[in-house]
């Protein structure tokens, strides 16, 4: 087993914002789904963390030989998984409005992780992009229509409402163990400050 997977993963998440130039993560997160982007940055940090352990490697989009399912990030020792991570990305308005997404998507991830037969750690990870203000209309052409319409429908969402929505979301999942949570400052894009909130959940085998 490589050095503390849970601790290494939590530390890498805290450092995630440093992987991007100032304001770049804000722009990328308001213009497209940032799941693959953030998973790639996380995998790179884990790769660096395990660089001194030659038998341990980090693989993106790993697939068990007995399954057609891919997992976003895998930590492998001698080619055998010791940790699997499935991630989803959402916007803060998704959580506030209590829609089926991302709840159902994360529930599916929990089920998929439970079905894999291996001795190791399983994690579900949610990234929540939170714009602190609403961009001016002049920027609409640069962002997906679904983002701009929902941002304007809900208005600027106060941090307390986001926190309450996250608690409700966690409860709707059945309150799996919360390993780590935090907030990444993504910078500014379209004159709007942006944060990325993350929740790392442990999934029983």
Explain the overall architecture.
The protein has helices at about 5-15, 25-30, 35-50, 90-95, 100-115, 145-155, 160-170, and strands at about 55-60, 70-75, 80-90, 120-130, 180-190, 190-200. With about 200 residues, the chain is of the alpha+beta class. The chain has a six-stranded mixed beta sheet with strand order 1-2-3-4-6-5, with helices on both faces. The chain is globular, with a radius of gyration of 17 Å.
* Count of helical regions: 7
Name the overall outline. globular
Distance between the termini: 17 Å
Binned, the helix content reads: 25-40%
How would a textbook summarize the main sheet?
Answer: 6 strands, mixed
Strand-pairing-aware structural class: alpha+beta
Q: How many E strands?
A: 6
Q: Write down the Rg.
A: 17 Å
**How would you write the strand order of the largest sheet?**
1-2-3-4-6-5
Order of helices and strands: HHHEEEHHEHHEE
């Amino acid at each position: 087993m490589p050095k503390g997977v849970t601790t290494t993963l939590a530390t890498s998440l805290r450092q995630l914002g440093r992987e991007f130039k100032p304001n770049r993560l804000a722009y990328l997160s308001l213009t497209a789904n940032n799941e693959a982007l953030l998973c790639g940055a996380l995998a790179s940090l884990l790769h660096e963390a395990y660089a001194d352990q030659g038998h341990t490697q980090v693989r993106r989009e790993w697939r068990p030989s007995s399954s057609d399912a891919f997992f976003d990030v895998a930590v492998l020792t001698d080619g055998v998984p010791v940790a699997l991570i499935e991630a989803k990305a959402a916007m803060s308005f998704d959580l506030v409005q209590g829609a089926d997404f991302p709840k159902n998507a994360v529930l599916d991830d929990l089920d998929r992780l439970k079905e894999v037969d291996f001795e190791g750690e399983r994690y579900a990870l949610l990234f929540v992009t939170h714009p602190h203000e609403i961009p001016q209309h002049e920027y609409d052409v640069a962002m997906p229509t679904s983002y701009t319409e929902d941002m304007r429908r809900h208005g600027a969402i106060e941090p307390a409402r986001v926190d309450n929505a996250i608690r409700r979301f966690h409860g709707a999942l059945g309150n799996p163990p919360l390993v780590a949570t935090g907030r990444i400052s993504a910078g500014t894009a379209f004159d709007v400050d942006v944060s990325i909130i993350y929740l790392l959940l442990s999934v029983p085998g």
